[in-house]
Amino acid sequence: KIAVLHQPPGTGKMLMAEAVTEHLERPLYIVGFPELLTVPSQLESELSEILNLATIWGATVLFDGGDV
C-alpha cells in the first residue's frame, strides 16, 4: 500500500508516519531523498536494496524530502 503525504514543513507528516507504523507494530525505515539522489546512476540499485531490506524487516518505508 502507498500513501503520499504532501504538506508544508512542520505540519506533522513525520509524526503521522511514526504513529501509523507504531500502531501497525512495524519498523519505520526513513530514506532521505537528497542522500538517495547524490549518484543518479545508482538510483535504481539503491531503491531495489532499500525495498528488499524493507521486505525482509517487514518495514514501512518513508521517503523524506521528496520536494527537492
Automatic annotation (TrEMBL):
Pfam assignment, any one: AAA
Top-level taxon in the UniProt lineage: Eukaryota
InterPro entries for the chain: ATPase_AAA_core, P-loop_NTPase
Domain ATPase AAA-type core span(s) in chain numbering: 4-62
GO molecular function: ATP binding; ATP hydrolysis activity
Name of the protein this chain belongs to: ATPase AAA-type core domain-containing protein
